[in-house]
Every structure is written in C-alpha cells, then in structure tokens.
Amino acid sequence: MRKIFLTLPKYRLAVQYKFIKRRKVNVDESIIPTPKTLRKKYRVGGYTRRFFRHIFEHKRIKKLLGANMAIMLVATSLMPTSTLGKGVVEENTVITNSNIPLTTEKSVQYPVQNLVITQGYKFYHPGLDIDGLTGDSINPIKKGIVVEVSYSRFAYGNSVIVDHGNKLTTLYAHLSKIDVEEGQEVNTHTKLGEMGATGRSFGDHLHLEVRDHGIPINPFSVLPR
Ligand SMILES: [Zn+2]
Questions:
Q1: How far is the CA of 185 from the centre of ligand 1 (A)?
Q2: Which residues, by Cβ under 5 Å, contact ligand 1, an ion?
Q3: Torsion of CA 16, 17, 20, 21, to 10 degrees
Q4: Chain center to CA of 23
Q5: What is the 3-state secondary structure (H, E, C) of 42-96?
Q6: What local confidence, expressed as pLDDT, does residue 40 receive?
Q7: Can you tell me the distance from the alpha carbon of 4 to that of 17, in angstroms, rounded to the nearest whole number?
Q8: Cys-Cys link to 193, which of 22, 25, 178, 183 (CB 3.0-4.6 A)?
Q9: How far is the centre of ligand 1, averaged over its atoms, from the C-alpha of 166 (Å)?
Q10: pLDDT of 45-73, one tens digit each?
Q11: What was the pLDDT predicted at 99?
Q12: How many angstroms from the chain centroid is the CA of residue 64?
C-alpha cells in the first residue's frame, strides 16, 4: 500500500490517496487442488488440512455457497408450513393402550361420605379432624398397602397407616373398629374401619394425617378441594 498525502491549505482541503495493491486472485485455480498446488500455497499442515483450507478459501466455493444459501432461504420461506410440519405431526401420533379402563375412577378421595371438617391443619395440629358418628365407614384417600394397624387407648387410639408409595402415607386415627390388617392391599373402595373416639379424643371424629417421608403435610396438598 502506498500513500500520497496532499495538503492544500489555501482551499482547506486535504487529499489522501491510497494505492492499495490488491492481491491477485487466480480465478482459474481449480476447486479440487493437486498436492503440488497445496504445497505451494500453504506452508503448514498435512495434506488433508491444506486440502480443506484450499476448498474453503476458494473464491468460487464461497460464491457457490452464498448463492445456495440465498436459494435455500427463498425456498423455505415459500414452502407452506403444512409441508414443513408434516413429519413432526406423524411422529406425535399417540398409540393408545386398549387396556385403559373406560370408567374413570377417582384416584384421591376424602375418607368419609359426608365431609365436615372441624379442625384444619395447623402447626399444633398436623392433620384434619373430620366430624361424624361412631360407625361411619372410613376409606383410604388413595389406594395403597396397610403398613400399620395399632390398638391403643392413648393418643391416636385405634389407628391405621396406609402407604401409597412415593413416600406418601396416611394415618386414620380414633377408630372404633378396624377392618384391615397389616400388609393388606387397599383401594378407595376398601373399608379400613369405622369412625370412633378412641385415644385422646373429645368426641366421635376421624383424625386424618397425610405424611410425606413420615412428616405430616397439609392434607389439602393431596386431597381435592
Ligand atoms: Zn386431630
């Protein structure tokens, strides 16, 4: 590059000429090079490296790629979206299992027929107190396995613990009668026992606890509201 700098103070002009010597491009150079041209053109790298360098640096390749990209952009924008999405739709086809029961069963329910909550879940009361009468049928809130049946005159009184899997368990306390035994599989239709006032209870009611990893949680986080 050569520079010529002219200052013409009289005309308040400064003219700058730049003579830039453009690198001569050998247009006739073939796209697929011969090992000889590669050796001459690039000093470093093995044959493969030189080969690909030649390909990517080739003017005609660049031109060709540029043109192709432009064509592709136009083509995709003109293509109707339905053709583009067709394959995706087909892949999303759901194969339905014929064994799915047609009657939908409630997976989570309240343990009693008539729900009257007399005490909610608080920090000093880790469950729900559901009012009723001795003899009212108690059902598990969810299917599971009976893991504990205990008879007591204190605290929870006669109680049942059902394991629902995923570390979720439920406790049914103050029962007057227990109809299940440990290890028994139960579902929402199974009668666990009957409401009572055993243990520390001031009257007929069910004390229900929902436990996650053994720790009481708000039963409403599991039960439908
Ligand atoms: Zn209670």
A1: 25
A2: 129, 207
A3: -150
A4: 56
A5: CCCCCHHHHHHHHHHHCHHHHHHHHHHHHHHHHHHHHCCHHHHHHHHHHHCCCCC
A6: 73
A7: 5
A8: 178
A9: 24
A10: 777 777 777 766 766 655 665 655 554 54
A11: 53
A12: 43
Could you tell me if 78 and 126 lie in one domain?
no
Question: In the chain, pLDDT over 70 holds for what percent of residues?
Answer: 63
The residue out of 56, 82, 108 marking a domain boundary is: 82
Using the predicted structure, report yes or no on whether residue 220 has a pLDDT greater than 90.
yes
140-150 pLDDT, tens per residue? 999 999 999 99
- Please list the residues that pair with 3 across neighbouring strands: 18
Residues ≥6 apart with Cβ < 8 Å to 1: 18, 19, 20, 21
What is the rounded CA–CA span in Å between residue 78 and residue 9?
59
* Better pLDDT: 29 or 124: 124
Could you tell me if 142 and 210 lie in one domain?
Answer: yes
What are all long-range contacts of 80-87, with beta carbons under 8 Å and residues at least 24 apart? none
Distance between terminal CA atoms of the chain?
A: 82
How far is ligand 1, taken at its centre, from the CA of residue 106, in Å?
A: 25
